[in-house]
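Progress against Task 2.4 (sequence-to-structure conversion) is shown through the following example record, which the project officer requested during the mid-term review.
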Amino acid sequence: MRNSAFKQLSWLTLVCLIALAISCVSPFDRTTWWLEVAPVLIALPVLWATHQRFPLTPLLYVCIGWHALVLIVGGTYSYARVPLGFELQSWLDLSRNPYDKIGHFTQGFVPALVAREILLRGGYVRGGKMLAFLVLCVVLAISATYELIEWAAAVALGQGADEFLGTQGDPWDTQSDMAFALLGGVVALLALSRWQDRQIQQIEAPRREGNPQ
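Structure tokens generated for the chain above:
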């Protein structure tokens, strides 16, 4: 399983680097691009620095890769102008481009699995209900922190932060962003908890037996 995790991390990194290279050529707004892809540029070195001591499950690496691509695409076009969002807007007869909601859903979905894996493997939480509660608290904390970062960017950059904010005139954008993150966290827990548990057991069993793979 550890070898599988290493392969997943390698593929994740390759895909992200290719996507970053393509997206940085001519993004819609250079400042927005930097702001949106910053989490990817931070996460990749952290994942490599910790992969031997604390390799994540292959499932989690795949989900992190998906989240990275969502961020990169949003940074390339700006969230309010992503072509996929316009397609969804037309299909669903929406009043605005919904791609930013996909981003915030993912912002809840993937961190929920990250928090869950860390809490479980570190032995910090044992009860399933308390685990779910704390995971969702982490999701909301991350979402609220991101909204504070957006607010700080708006104050610092003025009108230059409009593309980064992507509110599209919605006065309740901040609240709906956090709601979508919470929804993403709930869906992740309901859909992938058992799959993640099986992969955690496959990673941790050899280590407990004194034979890390």
